[in-house]
Amino acid sequence: MSSAHTFRKLVYGITLFFITLSGFGQMPIFDRYHISDIPGLGWLAQFYVTHSIHYLFAVVLIALCVYVVLDFLLDKKGFPRVTAPGLVKVFFILGLLVTGGFMVVKNLPGVYFSHVMIYILDLSHILLCMALLMASAYTLIKRKSWVR
Amino acid sequence: MTSKISRRAFLKGSITAAGSVAVTTGVARAAKSLAKEDIEPLVTVIDISKCIGCEECVYACQESNASKFPEPKKPYPKMYPSTVPVQDWSDKRDTTDRLTPYNWLFIQTATATVNGEEIELTIPRRCMHCENPPCVKLCPWGSAKQEDNGLSRIDPDICLGGSKCKAVCPWDIPQRQTGTGLYLNLLPALAGNGVMYKCDRCYQKLEKGENPACIEACPEDVQVIGPRSKMVEHAHALAKEMNGYIYGEKENGGTNTIYVSPVPFDQLTFEKGDGKPHLDQVDNKMANGNNIARAMLLAPLAGAAAAFGKFYKQVKEDE
After folding, report:
1. Residue A96 burial by CB count (10 A; 0-12/13-18/19+): exposed, middle or buried?
2. pLDDT of residue A146
3. Domain ranges, residue B69
């Protein structure tokens, strides 16, 4: 395994962890269940902090996704090697990027989305996140790789 | 309470007259047309020097929005962990000295010393209706929305009462009532805690081309409503005229409520706390996130540069 590949896996793992944690931090659950009372985890109940962290790791995730896609395109043997579980995860990540992108636009000043649109975006974003987590847990337990 | 009712009766005649005047003013006409045409957000300018603290706006607000108030059923489901607070205002519906789920507007009494003399000012307080409202933008459940006329409101049929809107509001405006809303049909013990309530600027009246109840009821014409550019101009002219001060135009990146006071806002002394919002300077709370959002536009370039860099290095090595 090349050092670039190991680095990529490490960046993805850290990004997935923090983006998920800060994403769940958008809901008022860490305070309710006293998780934010644990020393060092107080930031989980600070919504503006979790919001910024979520955005920062979204920047990393977007850069990583573009890097991986282009890397596969430039290496012509890349895409045929992607496994079925890998494709499923790609689909979920793509969905998260699209719904997340719309939500970022929604948060800009002067942007008015309909109530239904906001509701669909919020719900689909969290459902896609849950699906990605489950797919990731499956591939981790079953030792299924992204590529053959 | 009795004295308030008799005072109301006393003022009724003058309110009717003031209401008729307000409806026929240019500002009212502008509000009426804007409610339909969504050209600019609607802004209210509140001239504190005119407010006499009669609470007519408070009672008009309660009357106009009575059908939206919660009717919780008791006993409330037990919530876990036991530290989750039950917030019940259903037996204190007459409270008018602070914001509650049944009182979306109250009169805040402030004192200040001017030329060595203590003066008292009364200030109508309610949701500021931010230009970029964190309560709407950061609600994780999509329960809040902002309309193109600038008002923000919470949908009581969707809200779960998590109170995040209150936590992210610079003025802690939304107020929770436990025992009502959608959470009762989901997992009442484990998630949610009622519904959040706040001023929705009488959206049902704006939709009909009418002014919000607090504006219609005011016997002193303390508030005026109109398109943002005109109202900002009006607020500055008013401030210049009284040698006064402005609050709300720039706070939290700009709000759709602008107060004009003859006394600097930081020299006003009044009771602050839960349901009793401050008048401090507020930075744009959404600015950090929106700055990072701009960085998102550069992220694909960074990823592409890294991929092409790797490819170039590989080609060089192969040669």
Report:
1. buried
2. 85
3. 2-285
